[in-house]
Every structure is written in structure tokens, then in C-alpha cells.
Design brief:
The chain is of the alpha/beta class. It has helices at residues 4-8, 39-43, 62-72, 75-103, 120-123, 127-133, 185-196, 218-223, 235-240, and strands spanning 50-58, 111-114, 146-148, 163-165, 174-181, 202-211.
Length: 241
Amino acid sequence: MPTVGELTAPYANFMLGPRSGAGVCESCFNFTSGYARCYACTRNQTWLDAVLPISYSVAHEQLHHALAGYKRLTGEVARRLRIELAAVLWRFLAEHEACLAHAAAAARFELVTTVPSGDRARDQRHPLRFVAGLVGPVGQRGERLLRRSSTGAGGRSFDAAKFEPLRALANESVLLIDDTWTTGASAQSAAAALKAAGAGPVAAVVIGRHVNREWHENDRRLHALSRPFAWETCALCARDG
């Protein structure tokens, strides 16, 4: 059985670690045209106490295909992608879960859950739950806390009614796991539902922060990021020194 290091080694060749700075959204690390927050984060309601993307997911490039393929493909290819993405989460959280907890003003995350599928028919078998269940650092804290409701907006629109909690919470801190952040609407909707159920601090770790290389100065800014991917440094600890 390959080790976590062996499974994640190829990903370091194409992952791109986000970094804060001028022209980078202070919430989700999207590139902006000089603004402190990107358009989507300004437009959506903010319920997450912190967001930490592992890598930029550049449209039509390798991480983008992995994040699409683990959900859409079947058979051995899908199984391999799910194991590899679980290993990416495992290695990253082992290094940087504490960074995210610190940013969310939590001593630690008492519960870990996934953002449900926006499609109610797919929610029961969302492969992200399988991936998260393989992540060693999650341990016994993993629990399904949310499901897609029968109401609320679909697609990439924020709606506090999009997801419904499966039980009441007693101010526990919650780590949300998501695969891709495009507008952040689903993760913010999930955080809103968790806080309505009584959660304390809620933060999200996201495998890929989606960006388009062709948009404005994105190509230049992506090329400026450090290579190869550094597992020992995340966007939050790099920002905080």
C-alpha cells in the first residue's frame, strides 16, 4: 500500500499554494484587481470564520481534472483519484489544521464534516464524504452534520436554507471540508446552517480554489507563485509569518 507521501508526491508538481498580498482576496485568496475582497466574497454573506485553500485549481489543468474526475468518473480511475485526494487532505491537515483553527479563533476543531452536494439526489452518495473518511487526522471527529434541504437556492447562490442540520450543536467548533471553492456560496451556506444549529467557530479547508488563467493578470500571478508546492507552508502561516 503506498504511503501518504508517495500518493501526494505527484501533486506537488502541479499544485500552487495561495499566498496573501496586494490584489489577493483576504477571505478566499482569489486574485482581485487591487481590492481587499473579491466580488463573490463581497456579494455573499460571510459565515465562515476562516477559509484555507490548499492549492489554486486552475481551470482545465491537472488539479481541476482530478477534482472533477473523482466525482464524475467510475471504476478504478475514480477510486485512485479519491485515495490520492484523501492523501492530499491527510498530509495538509496534519501540517496545517492548527493554522486554520488559530485563524478561526478556536483552540481546536471538535467536529469535522463535509459540505453537502448542492444536488439533493446526489447528496446521499457524495464521494467527498468517502474521501474525508479516509483522512487520518480527522479521526473520530468526522460526522455528517448537514444534508441538502428541499428548499433554498441551487447552483452557486448563497442561501442559508440550502442545507439543514441533522442535529443540534452545543457551541462546538467545526471544520468544514470541501473539494472546490468557486464562489464560496455552498461553503458559506453550510456554515450558516451549522451556526443556526448552535455551532461555535466554523472554518473551511478547500482542496482547490478555482481560478481561470486567462482572467486579467492571473497567468502572470500564477507563474509568480513559488514552485514546487511546499507542504510545510500554507496560505495562513505564510501570511502570519
